Amino acid sequence: MAMGTVWFVGAGPGDPDLITVKGRGLIERAGAILFAGSLVSEAATRWAPPGCEIADSKDMTLEQMSAWLIAQAARCATVVRLQTGDPGLYGALIELVQPLDAAGVPVQVVPGVSSAMASMAAAVESMTLPEVTQTVVLTRVEGRTPMPEGESLRELAAHHCTVCVFLSITLLGRVTSELRAAGWAEDAPMLVVHKASWPGEQQIVRGTLATIQALCREAKIVSQAMIVASPTLGARQWPTLAKSKLYDASFTHRFRRASAPAEEENPT
Ligand code: SAH
């Protein structure tokens, strides 16, 4: 008998409206859905068809999860594994795909809006700014999962680019000391967003390297939070800003001819 496909679907950061159209379509025709905890239960239950088998993976081991997915794929054409944000970021994606491969179950992945993007959107901040930073690091600090060699926050933050730190709000003290060790100033702006995009529950805390820990303690933020350190933070209030070359009148690109002589070839 032909096996159904297991779709790993990014549910987005929390707001059920932030799932992709493709992801929602798959939920609507799913025979079975395995969702990852409270973060994504709303989307699963809102759009699942009647009779759809729905399970929470919260109390399952990896082996139980893959056994469940394989059993469902033997029974129905469309099985959805719903994960927060994007499935490829801290989502145990490959650990789950390998047993499915071994069982001959076809697998597909639908990307999702990561909480890193949703957190910056919530605060109306840009990850990149011309002549400020053009690079983003998505990382975490060491908890039970060890960091590979060369990936300590101290080393990564030495680039002074935008740094989004996942899974680390309970280790905020370590995050700030690593940033200090990387040469960030005490008044470097920082942002913490709790439950980004969750209707009615989102909290945005702005501070500096010196103040962010106390501010988060005051706001009682101890889980589901994105920590961002970036030289772009607060740029909305800057009086002068280097403009993106893409919209510069002197810059010619594929869709528009320059109205003034070009000074530089590449957009920033
Ligand atoms: N795949 C997810 C990340 C899962 S790891 C993604 O792409 O977003 C879980 C971590 O993601 C949390 O510890 C927190 O740092 C972050 N996170 C998830 N949802 C969040 C939200 N709505 N707001 C802020 N941070 C969130």
CATH architecture of the largest domain: 2-Layer Sandwich
**Helicity level, as a percent range?**
25-40%
| CATH hierarchy, class of the largest domain | Alpha Beta
Query: What is the count of helical runs?
Result: 8
> What is the terminal-to-terminal distance?
53 Å
Reading the helices and strands in chain order gives EHEHEHEHEHEHEHEEHE
State which percent range the strand residues make up.
Answer: 15-25%
Largest sheet: 5 strands, parallel
* Total E-strand runs: 10
Computed structural class: alpha/beta
Q: Total domains, how many?
A: 2
Rg (CA only): 21 Å
Bound ligands, named by name, code or SMILES: S-adenosyl-L-homocysteine
Any low-confidence stretches, pLDDT <50, length ≥5? none
CATH homologous group name of the largest domain: Tetrapyrrole methylase, C-terminal domain
Order of strands in the sheet with most strands:
3-2-4-1-5
Mean pLDDT, all residues: 92
CATH topology of the largest domain: Methyltransferase, Cobalt-precorrin-4 Transmethylase, Domain 2
Overall geometry: globular
Description:
The longest helix has 12 residues. This protein has two domains: 106 residues, Tetrapyrrole methylase, N-terminal domain (Cobalt-precorrin-4 Transmethylase, domain 1), CATH 3.40.1010; 123 residues, Tetrapyrrole methylase, C-terminal domain (Methyltransferase, Cobalt-precorrin-4 Transmethylase, Domain 2, 2-Layer Sandwich). The strands form two sheets. The chain has a five-stranded parallel sheet with strand order 3-2-4-1-5, with helices on both faces. It has a five-stranded mixed sheet with strand order 6-7-10-8-9, with helices on both faces. α3 packs across α4. The chain has 268 residues and is α/β, with parallel strands linked by helices. The chain is built from eight helices and ten strands. The structure holds S-adenosyl-L-homocysteine (SAH). S-adenosyl-L-homocysteine (SAH) binds next to α5 and β10.
